[in-house]
Amino acid sequence: MKKIAVLTSVVGVKVDKIYDIEFDNADYYFFTDNPTDIKGWTVRPLYPASVDDRFRGRRAAKIPKMLSHLLLPEYDYYIWHDYTNYVGQDPQSLVDQFLDGYDCAFFLHPERDSWHTEIKACEHRDHPERIAATERFMSNFKKHDSFFECSTFMRKNNAVANTTFGLWYEMMTCLSSRDQLTLPAAIQTHNPKINIMDGHCGLYAGNNEYLPANKTGLAGVGLVP
Fold it and tell me: What pTM did the predictor assign?
């Protein structure tokens, strides 16, 4: 059986419940600065460590999101989702369906088609100087064929995926913490094979059955802006 890790994290927000695990063929990890016992989940401490006081929680939460292969190197596949989402189908079937022959699987963004349009939506959600620096940096990259949501995705533990996600993390630490802005640069640099999943991962854009939002009623509550 393929070894699959499901990961989520939240820093700076107290969460006592995520969702009840329905499938036992994956291991579930919750990274947080408020460790608590949650049935079925392995809870790992994750503390903010950033010079960015305003968004230090958001930045810390990116570590397991992007560097799963360093924290949990023994797994073959990683399924990431924001803590407001949940795994809606058997993880093994998701891996078989979407990662056979691919390095990563994402949902298309429901509203915007490139970082060019997304950066305008992020102008008031990060430091202006970080947004400006990100826009200058991203001007070196073309408009990509696809623009992805980053709140849920799946990927393999292999060289090209790990290199892509490691570079993505490095870009995020140097630039905006709105990580969807720099993902296209990491993808264009290392060219992983990407599969596009059906639908979208947020209720606001029309839910889907794979990694849906709001099973526990948490969506929109306590999220870091």
Answer: 0.87
